[in-house]
Design a protein that fits this description.
The structure is a single chain. The chain is α/β, with parallel strands linked by helices and 345 residues long. It has a single domain (3-333), classed as Aldolase class I (TIM Barrel, Alpha-Beta Barrel). It has 12 helices and 10 strands. The chain is globular, with a radius of gyration of 19 Å. The two termini are 37 Å apart.
Length: 345
Protein backbone atom coordinates (compact mmCIF):
# COMPACT_ATOMS: atom_id res chain seq x y z
CA UNK A 1 0.00 0.00 0.00
CA UNK A 2 1.36 3.40 -0.94
CA UNK A 3 2.15 5.91 1.78
CA UNK A 4 -0.63 8.21 0.64
CA UNK A 5 -3.12 5.39 1.15
CA UNK A 6 -1.86 4.86 4.70
CA UNK A 7 -2.36 8.54 5.42
CA UNK A 8 -5.88 8.38 4.00
CA UNK A 9 -6.66 5.32 6.12
CA UNK A 10 -5.38 6.97 9.29
CA UNK A 11 -7.50 10.05 8.62
CA UNK A 12 -10.56 7.92 7.81
CA UNK A 13 -10.28 6.14 11.16
CA UNK A 14 -10.45 9.47 12.99
CA UNK A 15 -13.09 11.02 10.73
CA UNK A 16 -15.22 13.60 12.54
CA UNK A 17 -17.98 12.12 14.65
CA UNK A 18 -16.50 8.61 14.54
CA UNK A 19 -14.25 6.31 16.56
CA UNK A 20 -13.15 2.71 17.00
CA UNK A 21 -14.82 -0.32 18.54
CA UNK A 22 -12.15 -2.41 20.27
CA UNK A 23 -13.42 -5.99 19.92
CA UNK A 24 -9.99 -7.59 20.31
CA UNK A 25 -10.43 -9.21 23.72
CA UNK A 26 -8.07 -12.11 24.33
CA UNK A 27 -9.50 -15.47 25.40
CA UNK A 28 -9.02 -14.78 29.16
CA UNK A 29 -10.57 -11.30 28.86
CA UNK A 30 -13.64 -12.36 26.87
CA UNK A 31 -14.14 -15.23 29.33
CA UNK A 32 -14.33 -12.72 32.19
CA UNK A 33 -16.90 -10.69 30.26
CA UNK A 34 -18.97 -13.79 29.49
CA UNK A 35 -18.65 -15.16 33.05
CA UNK A 36 -20.29 -11.94 34.28
CA UNK A 37 -23.41 -12.74 32.23
CA UNK A 38 -23.28 -16.53 32.79
CA UNK A 39 -22.46 -17.37 29.17
CA UNK A 40 -19.88 -20.00 28.22
CA UNK A 41 -16.86 -18.58 26.39
CA UNK A 42 -16.81 -21.03 23.49
CA UNK A 43 -16.06 -20.29 19.83
CA UNK A 44 -19.71 -20.33 18.78
CA UNK A 45 -20.79 -17.90 21.51
CA UNK A 46 -17.90 -15.54 20.84
CA UNK A 47 -18.76 -15.57 17.14
CA UNK A 48 -22.45 -14.97 17.81
CA UNK A 49 -21.73 -12.03 20.08
CA UNK A 50 -19.33 -10.35 17.69
CA UNK A 51 -21.73 -10.93 14.82
CA UNK A 52 -24.34 -9.07 16.86
CA UNK A 53 -22.02 -6.06 17.09
CA UNK A 54 -20.76 -6.12 13.51
CA UNK A 55 -24.21 -6.40 11.92
CA UNK A 56 -25.80 -3.55 13.84
CA UNK A 57 -27.40 -1.36 11.19
CA UNK A 58 -26.23 2.22 10.81
CA UNK A 59 -23.18 1.75 12.99
CA UNK A 60 -20.85 3.30 10.41
CA UNK A 61 -22.33 6.70 11.29
CA UNK A 62 -20.34 6.56 14.54
CA UNK A 63 -17.85 3.69 14.15
CA UNK A 64 -15.03 4.00 11.61
CA UNK A 65 -13.06 0.87 12.49
CA UNK A 66 -13.10 -2.30 14.56
CA UNK A 67 -10.05 -3.92 16.15
CA UNK A 68 -10.34 -7.69 15.82
CA UNK A 69 -8.67 -10.61 17.61
CA UNK A 70 -6.86 -13.36 15.68
CA UNK A 71 -9.81 -15.74 16.08
CA UNK A 72 -12.33 -13.11 15.01
CA UNK A 73 -10.63 -12.00 11.80
CA UNK A 74 -10.93 -15.61 10.59
CA UNK A 75 -14.61 -16.06 11.51
CA UNK A 76 -17.70 -15.78 9.33
CA UNK A 77 -21.28 -14.66 9.81
CA UNK A 78 -24.18 -17.09 9.74
CA UNK A 79 -24.52 -16.68 5.98
CA UNK A 80 -20.86 -17.55 5.38
CA UNK A 81 -19.65 -13.99 4.83
CA UNK A 82 -16.27 -13.35 6.50
CA UNK A 83 -16.52 -10.82 9.30
CA UNK A 84 -13.99 -8.64 7.48
CA UNK A 85 -16.41 -8.33 4.57
CA UNK A 86 -19.38 -7.80 6.90
CA UNK A 87 -17.60 -4.77 8.34
CA UNK A 88 -16.47 -3.43 4.99
CA UNK A 89 -20.02 -3.62 3.63
CA UNK A 90 -21.06 -1.54 6.60
CA UNK A 91 -18.44 1.05 5.69
CA UNK A 92 -16.25 0.09 8.65
CA UNK A 93 -12.51 -0.65 8.41
CA UNK A 94 -11.29 -3.91 9.98
CA UNK A 95 -8.09 -3.89 12.03
CA UNK A 96 -6.21 -6.45 14.10
CA UNK A 97 -4.46 -6.68 17.47
CA UNK A 98 -1.00 -8.13 16.84
CA UNK A 99 0.75 -8.16 20.23
CA UNK A 100 0.80 -11.33 22.31
CA UNK A 101 0.22 -9.82 25.71
CA UNK A 102 2.18 -8.25 28.56
CA UNK A 103 4.57 -10.46 30.54
CA UNK A 104 6.78 -9.73 33.57
CA UNK A 105 9.79 -7.61 32.61
CA UNK A 106 13.04 -9.29 33.70
CA UNK A 107 14.93 -7.21 36.22
CA UNK A 108 11.97 -4.94 36.95
CA UNK A 109 9.71 -6.17 39.75
CA UNK A 110 6.07 -5.19 39.25
CA UNK A 111 6.57 -4.06 35.64
CA UNK A 112 5.72 -5.65 32.30
CA UNK A 113 6.89 -5.84 28.71
CA UNK A 114 4.63 -6.69 25.77
CA UNK A 115 5.73 -9.64 23.64
CA UNK A 116 4.98 -10.61 20.05
CA UNK A 117 7.75 -9.23 17.86
CA UNK A 118 9.01 -12.69 16.88
CA UNK A 119 7.45 -13.65 13.56
CA UNK A 120 5.52 -10.39 13.38
CA UNK A 121 6.53 -9.55 9.79
CA UNK A 122 4.98 -12.78 8.50
CA UNK A 123 1.85 -12.39 10.63
CA UNK A 124 1.35 -8.85 9.33
CA UNK A 125 1.48 -10.10 5.75
CA UNK A 126 -1.16 -12.71 6.55
CA UNK A 127 -3.42 -10.22 8.31
CA UNK A 128 -3.21 -7.82 5.38
CA UNK A 129 -4.21 -10.66 3.05
CA UNK A 130 -7.13 -11.46 5.38
CA UNK A 131 -8.34 -7.88 4.90
CA UNK A 132 -6.93 -5.85 7.81
CA UNK A 133 -6.30 -2.16 7.20
CA UNK A 134 -4.67 -1.31 10.51
CA UNK A 135 -2.97 -2.89 13.51
CA UNK A 136 -2.71 -2.34 17.26
CA UNK A 137 -0.07 -3.05 19.91
CA UNK A 138 -0.60 -2.36 23.63
CA UNK A 139 2.08 -1.62 26.20
CA UNK A 140 1.30 -1.50 29.92
CA UNK A 141 2.83 1.02 32.32
CA UNK A 142 2.10 0.79 36.05
CA UNK A 143 2.35 3.61 38.59
CA UNK A 144 3.49 2.40 42.01
CA UNK A 145 6.31 2.45 44.52
CA UNK A 146 9.28 3.86 42.54
CA UNK A 147 7.72 2.79 39.25
CA UNK A 148 7.41 3.19 36.36
CA UNK A 149 11.13 2.87 35.82
CA UNK A 150 12.79 4.46 32.82
CA UNK A 151 13.97 0.98 31.92
CA UNK A 152 10.40 -0.27 31.61
CA UNK A 153 9.22 2.80 29.73
CA UNK A 154 12.08 2.62 27.23
CA UNK A 155 11.79 -1.13 26.69
CA UNK A 156 8.09 -0.81 25.84
CA UNK A 157 8.72 2.25 23.66
CA UNK A 158 11.28 0.26 21.67
CA UNK A 159 8.80 -2.58 21.13
CA UNK A 160 6.05 -0.16 20.09
CA UNK A 161 8.32 1.48 17.56
CA UNK A 162 9.46 -1.84 16.06
CA UNK A 163 5.82 -2.91 15.75
CA UNK A 164 4.87 0.39 14.13
CA UNK A 165 7.59 0.40 11.46
CA UNK A 166 6.90 -3.25 10.59
CA UNK A 167 3.20 -2.44 10.23
CA UNK A 168 3.88 0.45 7.89
CA UNK A 169 6.27 -1.73 5.88
CA UNK A 170 3.39 -4.21 5.48
CA UNK A 171 1.01 -1.49 4.30
CA UNK A 172 -0.94 -1.26 7.56
CA UNK A 173 -1.63 1.75 9.77
CA UNK A 174 -0.25 1.11 13.29
CA UNK A 175 -2.19 2.18 16.35
CA UNK A 176 0.42 2.69 19.06
CA UNK A 177 -1.07 2.05 22.52
CA UNK A 178 1.04 2.94 25.58
CA UNK A 179 -1.38 2.59 28.49
CA UNK A 180 -0.58 4.07 31.88
CA UNK A 181 -2.94 2.08 34.08
CA UNK A 182 -5.60 3.55 36.36
CA UNK A 183 -4.83 0.95 39.03
CA UNK A 184 -3.44 2.44 42.24
CA UNK A 185 -3.88 5.41 44.54
CA UNK A 186 -1.81 7.89 42.53
CA UNK A 187 -2.92 11.46 41.97
CA UNK A 188 -3.78 12.97 38.61
CA UNK A 189 -0.44 14.83 38.73
CA UNK A 190 1.45 11.54 39.10
CA UNK A 191 -0.50 10.19 36.14
CA UNK A 192 0.39 13.32 34.16
CA UNK A 193 4.10 12.85 34.86
CA UNK A 194 4.10 9.12 34.05
CA UNK A 195 2.07 9.66 30.87
CA UNK A 196 4.30 12.50 29.67
CA UNK A 197 7.46 10.48 30.33
CA UNK A 198 6.02 7.47 28.53
CA UNK A 199 4.88 9.40 25.47
CA UNK A 200 8.19 11.27 25.29
CA UNK A 201 10.08 7.96 25.14
CA UNK A 202 7.60 6.47 22.66
CA UNK A 203 7.95 9.32 20.18
CA UNK A 204 11.72 9.31 20.52
CA UNK A 205 11.70 5.61 19.59
CA UNK A 206 9.23 6.15 16.74
CA UNK A 207 11.54 8.81 15.30
CA UNK A 208 14.62 6.60 15.67
CA UNK A 209 12.84 3.73 13.91
CA UNK A 210 11.78 5.99 11.03
CA UNK A 211 8.06 5.62 11.65
CA UNK A 212 6.05 8.06 9.54
CA UNK A 213 3.87 9.91 12.03
CA UNK A 214 1.30 10.88 9.38
CA UNK A 215 0.65 7.17 8.85
CA UNK A 216 -0.07 6.12 12.44
CA UNK A 217 -2.47 6.81 15.29
CA UNK A 218 -1.87 7.08 19.04
CA UNK A 219 -4.05 5.24 21.56
CA UNK A 220 -3.15 6.61 25.02
CA UNK A 221 -4.80 6.65 28.40
CA UNK A 222 -6.51 9.79 29.62
CA UNK A 223 -4.76 11.60 32.47
CA UNK A 224 -6.76 10.42 35.48
CA UNK A 225 -6.58 9.94 39.22
CA UNK A 226 -5.83 6.36 40.26
CA UNK A 227 -8.91 4.28 41.06
CA UNK A 228 -7.99 4.21 44.76
CA UNK A 229 -6.97 7.86 45.03
CA UNK A 230 -9.10 9.64 47.66
CA UNK A 231 -9.03 12.86 45.60
CA UNK A 232 -10.72 12.10 42.27
CA UNK A 233 -10.25 14.64 39.50
CA UNK A 234 -13.46 15.90 37.91
CA UNK A 235 -14.32 15.85 34.22
CA UNK A 236 -13.05 19.37 33.53
CA UNK A 237 -9.72 18.67 35.23
CA UNK A 238 -9.26 15.39 33.35
CA UNK A 239 -9.93 17.12 30.04
CA UNK A 240 -7.61 20.02 30.76
CA UNK A 241 -4.72 17.93 32.08
CA UNK A 242 -5.00 15.31 29.34
CA UNK A 243 -4.88 17.87 26.54
CA UNK A 244 -2.06 19.76 28.30
CA UNK A 245 -0.03 16.56 28.59
CA UNK A 246 -0.58 15.61 24.96
CA UNK A 247 0.31 19.11 23.81
CA UNK A 248 3.73 18.79 25.43
CA UNK A 249 4.82 15.56 23.75
CA UNK A 250 2.63 14.51 20.79
CA UNK A 251 3.77 15.93 17.44
CA UNK A 252 1.17 17.68 15.32
CA UNK A 253 1.93 15.35 12.41
CA UNK A 254 -0.03 12.56 14.15
CA UNK A 255 -3.52 12.62 12.55
CA UNK A 256 -5.45 11.50 15.58
CA UNK A 257 -5.53 10.32 19.17
CA UNK A 258 -7.98 7.52 19.94
CA UNK A 259 -8.32 7.24 23.71
CA UNK A 260 -8.75 3.95 25.51
CA UNK A 261 -11.37 3.87 28.25
CA UNK A 262 -9.06 2.04 30.65
CA UNK A 263 -11.65 0.83 33.12
CA UNK A 264 -13.74 4.00 33.27
CA UNK A 265 -17.51 3.62 33.31
CA UNK A 266 -19.39 4.04 30.03
CA UNK A 267 -20.69 7.44 31.01
CA UNK A 268 -17.40 8.74 32.42
CA UNK A 269 -15.40 7.72 29.33
CA UNK A 270 -17.90 9.55 27.13
CA UNK A 271 -18.08 12.61 29.37
CA UNK A 272 -14.28 12.97 29.54
CA UNK A 273 -13.92 12.72 25.76
CA UNK A 274 -16.72 15.23 25.33
CA UNK A 275 -15.07 17.70 27.70
CA UNK A 276 -11.82 17.55 25.73
CA UNK A 277 -13.59 18.27 22.47
CA UNK A 278 -15.60 21.06 24.10
CA UNK A 279 -12.47 22.94 25.22
CA UNK A 280 -12.01 26.30 23.56
CA UNK A 281 -8.71 25.21 22.05
CA UNK A 282 -7.45 24.27 18.61
CA UNK A 283 -5.64 20.91 18.45
CA UNK A 284 -3.45 19.60 15.63
CA UNK A 285 -4.92 16.11 16.05
CA UNK A 286 -8.44 14.66 16.12
CA UNK A 287 -9.48 13.55 19.63
CA UNK A 288 -11.44 10.32 19.24
CA UNK A 289 -12.14 7.02 21.00
CA UNK A 290 -11.12 3.38 20.80
CA UNK A 291 -13.35 1.84 23.44
CA UNK A 292 -13.93 -1.78 24.33
CA UNK A 293 -15.90 -2.26 27.51
CA UNK A 294 -17.17 1.35 27.45
CA UNK A 295 -19.00 0.55 24.19
CA UNK A 296 -19.81 -3.10 24.83
CA UNK A 297 -21.21 -3.20 28.35
CA UNK A 298 -24.80 -2.26 27.40
CA UNK A 299 -25.15 -4.71 24.46
CA UNK A 300 -23.39 -7.51 26.35
CA UNK A 301 -25.65 -7.20 29.40
CA UNK A 302 -28.72 -6.97 27.16
CA UNK A 303 -27.79 -9.98 25.01
CA UNK A 304 -26.83 -12.45 27.79
CA UNK A 305 -26.37 -15.21 25.23
CA UNK A 306 -30.04 -15.22 24.22
CA UNK A 307 -30.81 -14.91 20.50
CA UNK A 308 -34.17 -13.35 21.37
CA UNK A 309 -32.29 -10.35 22.80
CA UNK A 310 -30.17 -9.60 19.72
CA UNK A 311 -32.25 -6.71 18.40
CA UNK A 312 -32.42 -4.97 21.77
CA UNK A 313 -28.69 -5.52 22.27
CA UNK A 314 -27.98 -3.93 18.89
CA UNK A 315 -30.15 -0.97 19.85
CA UNK A 316 -28.13 -0.57 23.05
CA UNK A 317 -24.86 -0.74 21.12
CA UNK A 318 -26.03 1.77 18.54
CA UNK A 319 -27.15 4.17 21.28
CA UNK A 320 -23.80 3.95 23.12
CA UNK A 321 -21.93 4.53 19.86
CA UNK A 322 -24.17 7.51 19.08
CA UNK A 323 -23.36 9.12 22.44
CA UNK A 324 -19.63 8.77 21.79
CA UNK A 325 -20.16 10.18 18.31
CA UNK A 326 -21.72 13.24 19.93
CA UNK A 327 -18.74 13.49 22.30
CA UNK A 328 -16.48 13.76 19.25
CA UNK A 329 -18.12 17.14 18.61
CA UNK A 330 -18.28 18.17 22.26
CA UNK A 331 -22.07 17.93 22.06
CA UNK A 332 -22.76 15.06 24.49
CA UNK A 333 -24.85 15.70 27.59
CA UNK A 334 -25.90 13.53 30.52
CA UNK A 335 -29.52 14.02 29.47
CA UNK A 336 -28.77 12.06 26.29
CA UNK A 337 -28.17 8.98 28.45
CA UNK A 338 -31.86 8.97 29.30
CA UNK A 339 -33.11 9.30 25.72
CA UNK A 340 -35.21 6.33 24.60
CA UNK A 341 -33.21 3.83 22.58
CA UNK A 342 -34.46 3.94 18.98
CA UNK A 343 -35.58 0.68 17.45
CA UNK A 344 -33.44 -0.64 14.63
CA UNK A 345 -35.38 -2.14 11.74
Amino acid sequence: MAGRDLESTAKAIVAKGKGILAADESFPTIKKRFDAINVESCESNRRAYRQLLFTTRGISEFISGVILFDETIRQKADDGTPFVQVLQRQGVLPGIKVDQGAKPLAGAAGEKITEGLDGLRDRLTEYRELGAHFTKWRAVITIGDRIPSQYCIDANAEALARFAVLSQEAGLVPIVEPEVLMDGDHTIQQCFEATAATLHSVFNSLFEHRVMLERMLLKPNMVLSGKACPQQANVEEVARETVRCLGRVVPGAVPGIVFLSGGQSNETATANLNAMNALDEVHPWQLSFSYGRALQDPPLKTWRGNAANIQRAQQAFHHRAKLNGAARYGKYSVEMEREPVAERA
